[in-house]
Amino acid sequence: MWRELDVVQRTGSTNSDLVARAAGGGRGLGEGVVLVAEEQSAARGRLDRKWVAPARSGLFFSVSLRPGDAGVPMERWGWLPLLTGVAVATGLARAGGVDTALKWPNDVLVTVGGEERKAGGILAEAAGDGGVVVGVGVNVSLRAEELPVPTAGSLGLAGAVSTDRDPLLRAVLRGLEDWYGRWRAAGGDAGACGLQEAYAAGCATLGRVVRAELPGDRALVGEAVAVDGDGRLVLATEAGVQEPVGAGDIVHLRAAG
């Protein structure tokens, strides 16, 4: 699937570079392009949050996908960050020998000193007609003094048996190709291709009491009980209703009683 892979020493954001290319700059952008950076000066997460890491300390890359060309309905594209999360977690476990978990919708977690910490993030952005660029950032070899915030983590701090970025990247890309192929062949039906079950199995958010910070300065507290067929997080509230959350920040409060 990966027909083109470029590695650059430094750029602002691999996501921004591929989105710009999809908009008509340079050679255009088809499916299967991978852009890897040794360092990013303007890396972004969700809600335009900055992602800061020393050069050559992690995996910083973006890929181009075109689910629209395969007839996958746009309403199912919301699964792409979750699908990527499954591929990242699986690849890091296989090649790095480190346990990971997923925080809905786009964080990769590791355990450092008995504490759950964010070691990676995923950002999906529309790119032209029928295209999506998915970016991944993972802290690999960062030492404690290099962390952007004390609550962050890295594969090295979590006891990974390998922090060689080459096999880690290869493993993640293999997993992404596998899961994307299954999902695309199923027309984006996450239940039919097994993606919904795989995501739920690795999601640390499920079974916990969480606070969802929603658009419009609203908040919703409840137990995360499921990820539905549209990739939304379903919360069971104290009012006795189940409410799906499609977008928002999730704060893990405590394990469910």
Automatic annotation (TrEMBL):
Sequence ranges assigned to domain BPL/LPL catalytic in this UniProt record: 1-184
SUPFAM superfamilies: Class II aaRS and biotin synthetases
Entries under CDD domains matching the protein: BPL (cd16442)
Keywords: Biotin, Ligase
UniProt GO MF annotations: ligase activity
Enzyme class: ligase
InterPro entries: aa-tRNA-synth_II/BPL/LPL (IPR045864), Biotin_CoA_COase_ligase (IPR004408), BPL_C (IPR003142), BPL_LPL_catalytic (IPR004143)
Organism domain of life: Bacteria
EC number: 6.3.4.15
PANTHER family in alphabetical order: BIOTIN PROTEIN LIGASE (PTHR12835), BIOTIN--PROTEIN LIGASE (PTHR12835:SF5)
Protein name from the UniProt record: biotin--[biotin carboxyl-carrier protein] ligase
Lineage: Bacteria, Bacillati, Actinomycetota, Actinomycetes, Kitasatosporales
